[in-house]
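Why predict the complex rather than its parts? Because the way molecules touch one another can change local conformation, and only a joint prediction can capture that. The input here totals 372 residues.
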Amino acid sequence: MGNTTGQLFRVTTFGESHGPAIGCVIDGCPPGIAIAAEEFAADLERRATGRTRHTSARRESDAVEILSGVYEGRSTGTPLALLVRNTDARSKDYERIARQFRPGHADYTYWQKYGIRDPRGGGRSSARETTMRVAAAVVAKKWLAERHDVRIRGHLAQIGGIVPAAHDWAAVEDNPFFWPDAAQVAELETYMDALRKSGDSVGARVTVVADGVPPGWGEPVYGKLDAELAAAMMSINAVKGVEIGDGFASVAQRGTVHRDGMAPDGFLSNHAGGILGGISTGQQLVVSVAFKPTSSLRLPGPGLDLDGNAVEVVTTGRHDPCVGIRATPICEAMLALVLMDQALRHRAQCGDVGEVAPRIAAAAPGGDHGHG
Ligand SMILES: Cc1cc2nc3c(=O)[nH]c(=O)nc-3n(C[C@H](O)[C@H](O)[C@H](O)COP(=O)(O)O)c2cc1C
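Output of the joint prediction:
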């Protein structure tokens, strides 16, 4: 229940934070995609903990084992099963909170729903699960790039009150924050060091974009591309908000500003974020995601124990002081999974329609089309 995403590219994940392994099964994967176990390493490394002092110190190797669905290096069209073993779980850290509900975490709600929970490392509610979303999306990103020239990228767009002063994609992969302004990295290091020392945590915003998406992907009415993107992003741990294009800033805009003018040589702006009527326009897709601050803190906070007594909850163990720092590859992954699924659905129903005239460029020369 609730562990599968997608209609035609169906990804089911399984596993807990401190269980022996986590994994996923992709059903509906197109045959013939070249897939090698080593191809997962780059994106999993980008998501991983323990690589810098600004994330949790847990250090997993995140080596992907391909259990099925690949023969002689190519997907066969049968269920593609991927497995990652957990090798650095320290369940002892969770002995105390096994009898407590952390404020702001999923302990209480899992308990109320199932009447039983695996408290070790947050069990199934841990973001360890997102490893498998990133792994599954490696396949989706590859197919989208090869078949449609779709390119998916992302960056951190805010930590606490700090926003990028400049936007340079080239800077993003060169710092531990996925930050698009190299000049601010030292400021972020200082900010995060002070935050970590204080024992507190902070929220963040991630922006992800897809370039090259053709017009026509997305389904009215309940399968709208923006609706599915919002659901996909909201399914990521700690997400409290999703914006498409200008999102909530649209509230203060006039129609004359927000509507994206069209010209024979392309769109004149991209306030809509590349989606109209739930269907892609051919412009850049722009999705922005709000992450709440980490709830597991060593600073005491009011919670309850299993008997309903008030307790001061203190969470030890290894935690991210800002979960958003590692979330860029996860948001990219969900964008890729939604696009892959929508691309296959579009092909299934409308594959015979072909290219319809007039087809205009994503951005008119000199037009303000979005996000770099
Ligand atoms: C990349 C990432 C890392 C996370 N790391 C932690 C963590 O170290 N400690 C923690 O308490 N929560 C962490 N979370 C958030 C929890 O998984 C999440 O808050 C919890 O499952 C409750 O769900 P909710 O916040 O979506 O309501 C992380 C989330 C993400 C996306």
